[in-house]
Amino acid sequence: MKKHTCKHKRLLPLLALIVLIMGIMACNLSNQEGEEPFSEPTLGEEEPSDGDPFPEAGESSQEEEPPPGEEFPDEVRIEFDAERTHLNPGECTLIFWNTEGGFSVNINGNPVESSGEHEVCLEETTILILGVDMGEAMEERAIEIFVEDEPGGEQPLGESPPEADPSQGDEPRTDLAVTDIYPDNLPHGKFFARITNHGPDTLNNFKIDFHCLGTGVSWGGAEFGVEHIDNSKSVNINLAPGQTESYDTGLKLDANLYQYEMICEVMIKSDPDESNNVYMETIPLSNSGSSGSGSVTPTTAPAFSADFAITDLYITKNVNGSVFAHVTNHGPGNAVNVNFHLECSAGEAAYTSGALWLVILPWKVPIQNASLTPGQTKEYDVNYIVDTTQQKYTVECTVNVGWTDADPSNNTYSEPFPPPP
Q1: What is the distance between the alpha carbons of residues 308 and 404, in angstroms, rounded to a whole number?
Q2: Which of 8, 101, 139, 358 has the greatest number of CB atoms lying within 10 Å of its CB?
Q3: What spatial distance separates the first Cα and last Cα of the chain, rounded to whole Å?
Q4: Measuring CA to CA, how many Å separate 152 from each of 5, 92, 148, 155?
């Protein structure tokens, strides 16, 4: 009996193991018939969400992998700016950028270098977005460039729309032309421009812009003086088709000194023929003293004549110093703001017997904007220095003018230094 009892005790561990195995099999059977067993998501997969099923532009539903052999950059530096952020329609501005890091760079989806600049011309307000591909994500910077006064655009909050100019109305379609440029008086006067309306529209108190410029060259050549004049202005005009009016250009002339090449241009939108907007004329045609061809405005200037003479050469001190020339206007013309030049030469030698003379090559001394009335004398530095304690000198100067000189025989003067006893 005792031996039988021991046999049953040895079977208990075996029965417990069988019960455990049956329990595990029962659990596996329920998993196959019911819900899926839990498992962790694989790297790179995302759990479904209830949000927007379409990823936004520039994003991906899959995490990007870096190119083979490269790692994702740790950081990026981006500079993105514009020279101007407020433009009128059609105007341009310069944008510039500089980036460090990332795999590639684009502006509004267009590939660009990592740094650079570019001119953009816009008709409407635009947002420019610079993107740097970091591999895992896009780093972006944005600039908004506002285009003002866009057609049909909304008025900014708190601002009232600008009032229309009732005098302008709709832009007229008419052919304006500059048909003449003339002086109101010679030799001194103002330049006027004649403007003609070739139609078809009538202009009533309509504002136009016109621009005139000219170059005056001395009658003796450019070496005696050149004058540049330039002016732009706006005027309100009243012109029916076929009508012509004259308008002051705001520019003056001195035909005693200069002959002018003048250009004037009229500017108006919707001009069907822009080929006649510009007009050129030489004024005066000559300096002959003729009153012209009998037209309303003379084409030639009265001949200007003034007899300029050098009447003395002297030094500032008794024995040494700068040499000066006395220039006298013997008339008849009154010289106002004139240009002329002195042409001088010199020789110098030691006091020793038989010393050779050293000849100084001629040089010019330009005199600008000089004014001498008939009978008046003024002194001018000839840019030469002497020292009579060391050497003896001879200086000769000639005055050259760009107009008719009544007596050229007195234009040249010579003086020795020291002067003879």
Answers
A1: 10
A2: 139
A3: 178
A4: 107, 21, 11, 9
pLDDT of residue 397: 96
Tokens describing residue 216:
């005056």
Which of these, 297, 328, 281, 306, lies nearest to 220 by C-alpha position? 306
Domains and CATH numbers, the chain: 77-147 (2.60.40.10), 174-283 (2.60.40.10), 306-417 (2.60.40.10)
pLDDT means over runs of 10, the chain (421 residues): 45 56 55 44 40 38 47 72 87 90 87 90 89 82 78 44 48 88 87 92 88 88 84 90 92 87 88 88 72 43 83 86 94 86 94 89 90 94 93 94 87 90 67
- Compute the CA torsion angle 381, 382, 385, 386 (nearest 10 deg): -110
Sheet harboring 226-239: ordered strands across? 226-239, 203-218, 258-267, 278-283
Q: Tokens 């708190």 belong to which residue?
A: 158
Asked whether 277 and 296 are in contact (CB, 8 A), the reply is: no
What's the one-letter identity of residue 378? K
> Which string of b and e fits 290-324 if b means at least 16 CB within 10 Å?
eebeeeebbbbbbbbbbbbbbeebbbeeeeeeebb
Q: How far apart are CA 408 and CA 399, in angstroms?
A: 9
pTM score above 0.70: no
Element spanning 12, H or E:
helix 2-33
Q: What's the angle, vertex CA 27, arms to CA 24 and CA 33, rounded to 5? A: 145
How many angstroms separate the Cα of 239 from the Cα of each of 6, 178, 269, 368? 138, 13, 16, 44
Strand ranges in 148-292 using DSSP code E only, listed in sequence order = 174-183, 188-200, 203-218, 226-239, 244-254, 258-267, 278-283
